[in-house]
Specification:
It contains 11 helices and 9 strands. The longest helix has 19 residues, at 282-300. It is of the alpha/beta class. The structure holds phosphoric acid mono(formamide)ester.
């Protein structure tokens, strides 16, 4: 079996064959057909808000016939100062088979992994990673283009926006770098240049130049809550220089794809008019989130 049966926290234990295998599984999965009840239990521990990730893990688990428990952070002992590690060790003591975690604490899931018996899955960790989002983004490109294999991917992918604060961006960069798929960044200097240097990728100061280079553009949410103390941050300047709008898309590949992991700040990263563009595949990303997470859960929990 090419897919490792261990906690899935990042791309360190995955190789090209494992990604290929998972995408093939996701392609086969019919998310409209429920399976028979399984005896395995998945715990969803979301300590930060989430719509797409939490619901799609739950939907995927239910379609696989798994039982699901949801831990509500606002009603948990985290409110009393319990650490993430203690919370997960206590939930683990109750015997779930797998725990999906989203959190923004200073702790690392990789430090908790050895303390629990259940498999851990990263559902979004601080600004460091959101690997299942990167997998569903890759899978969406494959589905939209009709690629059967990751080696068929010929696209060049441009990331635009608040790259510095984006866990989605980092996981995408790690996955694309592993697969040797070219990517580039377009953003205000302070939001991307150090990361572009770290990953050795192209950096565009003018989004128009990036759109000429790319045939997939991924806009990222401007995380305004993280810019409150940043004197240099100016939303109007960002909108003027980097917003993906109808005028800019006129010069973009007519067969290109426009993506965004959500949630979108409409009329900031993307204009509302862009949602009507046939190249815009935001809801397909959401739909594919269920498929890729169902494929991941079925591999990790050995459900056929
Ligand atoms: N893309 C994503 O992670 O969305 P949620 O925050 O709604 O889960």
């Amino acid at each position: 079996m090419v897919f490792p049966k261990k906690s899935f926290l990042d791309f360190r234990h995955l190789n090209k064959e494992a990604v290929e295998f998972l995408c093939a599984q996701a392609r086969r999965i019919d998310i409209r057909r429920s399976r028979f009840m399984q005896d395995k239990i998945v715990a969803l521990v979301f300590l930060e808000p989430s719509t797409r990730t939490r619901c799609s893990f739950e939907m995927a688990a239910l379609r696989l016939g798994l039982r699901v428990i949801n831990i509500d952070a606002s009603e948990s002992s985290l409110k009393k100062g319990e650490t993430l590690s203690d919370t997960l060790v206590n939930i683990d003591a109750m015997g779930p088979d797998l725990i999906v975690v989203r959190h923004g604490t200073d702790e690392k899931l990789s430090d908790v992994e050895s303390k629990v018996n259940a498999l851990l899955v990263n559902g979004g960790e601080g600004v460091s990673g959101h690997p299942t989002q990167a997998l569903l983004d890759l899978f969406t490109i494959m589905e939209e283009r009709g690629y059967q294999s990751v080696t068929d991917i010929k696209d060049r992918i441009l990331f635009v926006g608040d790259i510095l604060h984006s866990r989605v961006a980092r996981s995408n960069f790690d996955l694309l770098a592993m697969l040797n798929i070219p990517f580039a960044m377009a953003a205000p200097d302070e939001w991307a240049r150090p990361l572009a240097e770290e990953y050795g990728c192209e950096f565009f100061t003018k989004v128009e130049d990036g759109l000429k280079w790319a045939n997939v553009v991924m806009a990222l949410r401007v995380q305004s809550e993280r810019h409150l103390d940043d004197q240099k941050f100016n939303l109007q300047y960002f909108i003027h220089d980097f917003q993906i709008n109808e005028a800019r898309l006129k010069k973009f590949d007519p067969k290109g794809l426009v993506m965004h992991p959500g949630p979108v700040n409409w009329d900031v990263e993307l204009t509302t008019g862009v949602s009507a563009d046939r190249r815009c595949v935001l809801f397909k990303q959401v739909k594919n989130g269920v498929r890729i997470r169902a494929a991941l859960l079925s591999q990790l929990l050995e459900i056929d």
